[in-house]
Amino acid sequence: MAKRLVIKVTAGADAPERCSQAFTVAAVAVASGVEVSLWLTGESAWFALPGRAAEFELPHAAPLPDLLETIASGGRLTLCTQCAARRDIGEGDVIEGVRIAGAQVFVSEIVGDDVQALVY
User: Fold this and answer.
1) What Pfam families does UniProt report for this protein, alphabetically (predicted)?
2) Domain spanning 4-119 has what CATH number?
3) Full-prediction pTM beyond 0.85?
């Protein structure tokens, strides 16, 4: 098993099953003791804002706020710099624990033998 798992989620309410899968895998990995970094990109960028995860619904899926809380408690949450800018989201707008960073940081996280990267 990889020592670190980096997940880039591009889907939000526009593709709820893909979105939920990414958050579920990240939360399960955190609960299993894996070092997790979840990147919010594209439409998932909205979940960096307070209250937005509570608006997400998908039947038979774990509630997104619960998954987000699990990930935040033991992993790292990053909002893509360009995705934030396109949505006019600033550092002061995001929930506690979310950082805003760009491609250089993403690349530095996914390079290495002990890393598994997934894109949803």
Assistant:
1) DsrE
2) 3.40.1260.10
3) yes
